[in-house]
Write a structure and sequence with these properties.
This is Adenosylcobalamin biosynthesis, GlcG-related protein. The protein is an alpha+beta fold and about 170 residues long.
């Protein structure tokens, strides 16, 4: 029993030592810095999208998700349908996940078992990724306008409102 225990301890020690030595020789950092949107920036994106749609006489819901796809800001205008909340979230999640406006994905996945059938993915215009220096840091989705094109224009206006700030903060 004592021999098995000491052999096991030696094996585990050897693995640990090898792992530590391997980590030191690697080019991988010990810690990774992750850029995230501040709440105020996410709120500016959402509020600008709402205001842009209001100027066109449309009331919508807007969701801004972080880089993990979690809702950071959710706004629904007074007369926007309840369903628009879920749809705006899915558009934001899809835009963030695919790092692409959702309008460019509408015809991409048409098979019966394609990725378009994944639970949170919605391949409908109105979602836009939020990027800083080429890195995706979130997504914004808008829902409730008579067309996905209008939804997407409002989402793009939201991102445009903070685009310069995001680029400057990246340095």
């Amino acid at each position: 029993m004592k021999t098995k225990l000491s052999k096991s301890l030696m094996f585990v020690s050897a693995l640990a030592f090898t792992g530590i030595a391997g980590a030191q020789d690697s080019d991988q950092p010990v810690m990774v810095q992750i850029k995230r949107l501040s709440m105020d920036t996410a709120l500016t994106i959402a509020k600008t999208a709402i205001d842009t749609c209001r100027e066109q006489g449309v009331q919508v819901a807007v969701t801004v998700v972080d880089r993990g796809g979690h809702p950071q800001v959710v706004l629904r205008d007074v007369l926007a349908m309840d369903l628009s909340l879920e749809v705006s979230y899915r558009k934001a999640y899809t835009a963030m996940t695919f790092t692409s406006p959702t309008s460019s994905l509408e015809d991409r996945f048409t098979g019966p078992f394609s990725v378009g059938k994944v639970e949170k993915v919605l391949l409908s215009a109105g979602g836009v990724p939020i990027q800083a220096s080429g890195e995706t840091i979130g997504g914004v989705g808008v829902s409730g306008a008579p067309s996905g094109e209008t939804d997407e224009n409002c989402a793009m206006a939201g991102v445009a409102a903070v685009e310069m700030d995001l680029e400057m903060a990246s340095f």
